[in-house]
Amino acid sequence: MQAIARRAVGEAIGAGPAVAMLGVGVSFGAGVARRPILADISLSVGKGEFVSVVGASGSGKTTMLRLLAGLLRPTPGEVLDHGQPVTGPSRDRAIIFQDYSKALLPWRTVSGNVALSLEARRIPAREHAAIIAALLAKMGLDQAANQYPGQLSGGMQQRVQIARALAQNPRILLMDEPFGALDAMTRQALQDEILALTAEQRITVVFITHDLDEAIYLGDRVVALGGAPARILETVDINLPRPRDQLATREDPRFLGHRHRLFGLLRKG
Amino acid sequence: MRRFLLGSIVPAGFAAIWEVAARSGALTFDSLSRPSAILSAGFQGLCDGSILIATGQTFETALLGLAIAAVAGIAAGAVLGLSPLLERIVEPTIESLRPIPAIAFMPLALMLFGFGIAMEATIVAYACVWPILIVTVLAVRGIEPRLVEVADILELPFAERLGKIIVPAAFARINVGLRIAVGISLVVAVTVEIVLNPRGLGYSLVLAQQSMRVDVMYAQLLWLCLIGYVLNALLRHLEGPLLMARRRQ
Questions:
Q1: Whole-complex ipTM
Q2: Which of A8, A229, B12, B222 has its CA 20 to 30 A from that of B1?
Q3: Options 3.40.50.300, 3.90.1310.10, 1.25.40.10, 3.40.50.2000; which CATH number does A2-92+170-268 get?
């Protein structure tokens, strides 16, 4: 129910989707080496909606996320952020990279890494401590505030990256297989935290994963990518109640139904 | 400690033989003093402050030149490292300026600045800027692209991108260039003082030689050795913790 509620709330706030991709394609290389990666992608994500994107590895999922972030320009097509064409990266669209160890500044402490976002937003230095403390508490990092990323476990490092992204105060959160390198227990804990945080702040999320279960568990919708160049094979509405529960949700017959449907799609694609 | 003892066998043995040879009359050249006289001359120079004042003058100039070279070299290196196009444009100019020995600019610097700290520091800066510049270009090229994307996403303005991401990320490698430059700065400063500029350790060396105070001259040479050794140890020591933070990664 909350899934529908999330979308309804989002759509009621303002007209139009948070993110839209209109006939987007991307090719790498030039001349004879030109290789199309994505073709004809059209997708619209409502405000506050959580959309998962699945596909086999190498299917162009990350490319799609980089388009949304503005790190890559589409040819042809257009990406819109709340109706405005995306022409480059923006603080409004935070991105969580899979390789957290490379995305954190190793010479800054956990607090320092989070502070980077606040500095970028020109928030006065005297306000930093309180904001950082609140974010770190929320992400379970309060004990690690003065440690360096290299001293932390993978799960903790990814929490730091999430805290830094939230400190950006983004409208849209783009996540690129953020939990792929983590152990199962840590992954489940972070899945639930991300759901709670983004619901609380009504952040629109596009979440890339190769894990079908994760995609269904988290998403209001799951977009399946496949083919070469990759296209949207199908978009599946996930009509599972929220808040999601690691046991009950995954045992729900509808969960298994979605799983079967998507598994079949991706195997063909 | 053991290493230190092993390492001092050669200089100590050499000094002992030298002392014995000088005292026994086997060595009678005017240009050779003996270790005991050199040590006492050095001790006297330290006590009356003359060596320390000269050292201060040389360091002051070397560090000033080094600082100018570091600021200019790191800033220009970062810009060139970020813009391959710009690098291709200025590379021929850099490559034609770089091989000119800094010492060759002494007459020009003298005309521009006259005797004193400005002339000497300019020549030091010229000599030091190249290794820093070249190492910085390479260091910036080798930065983890993710970090640059983080800067992109946060829309950091150029100056902050440089100060908060690029320079710290490239620091470990830039530091290598800085260490090379520290050595160069002292060599060039002392050389300029010997040849031209009436101040600092180089000039004291010349004075000692001209007044036939061979013991003083050797004492100052020994002092230069010591400075070089301590400076290098200090730089390595400073580098340690900075590199540690990165290695933990």
A1: 0.88
A2: B222
A3: 3.40.50.300
